[in-house]
Design brief:
This protein is an alpha+beta fold. A hairpin with a 2-residue loop joins strand 7 and strand 8. The strands form two sheets. Strands 1, 2, 3, 5, 6, 10, 11 and 12 form an eight-stranded mixed β-sheet that branches. Strands 4-7-8-9 form a four-stranded antiparallel β-sheet. It has eight helices and twelve strands. Helices cover 28% and strands 25% of the residues.
Length: 237
Amino acid sequence: MTNIAGPGKEISEKTLELNICAEMLYRIRSWPHCDRALWHGMTQHQERHNGLDQLIRNTGIGSSLMLQFKSPWPTSRVDSLYRFTINERQHEALEDLARRYPRAVYYVLPLYTTWEKANNHSPDLIRDTWLMPVASIPLASLTSQPALSSGRHRVDVGRDGSQTVATVHSPTIEADLINAGTFFTDSGNPRMFRDQMDMVPSDALQKWVATRDRNGLSVRFSGLKALYVPQSYALAV
């Protein structure tokens, strides 16, 4: 089989996004008021104006979770160590939301680089996909000692016995991890709807998308998804 994902890596980021987002949608449709939920994929024009790759709509929920997908490095060691990259500019924009809504903004880290593991886990790739709260990585600590060029930082996700742990280098920061399979199963209970004040309201999301960073650039990033955006969200068309 021809490797189309890059040297030393069999599965592309887009492949992981497509499959994991489908699994998320399957679970979300079992939640109250979400049985008709749909993914809304952005056109290139909409991406430029809305700052999102895609969002979930047609639900009865009025606030959002923000998910920034990441893809593991080709050099990741299967089931012992997976490496990801986060960059300071992106993190700064995401932390702007996470400071106000710490339970609403996450990096999504799928632990898949080979077809063998993906084939064995299908249709349940979400079981070894992990959510890392942006709020667990303070920007001030992240920027104090850049580890890679262009303000990029390495995130190592590995196994420690029965635990899956994340470490940001450098400086060394121990970040929180939440299993995505558990999160999207447990979130389908009434507590999720009582906790909507912890998620991003539609007006706050619109204001965030419209902001610019200190260099005058927008907050738009590839791989950014929004869950539960209500139909009233003012999308560019």
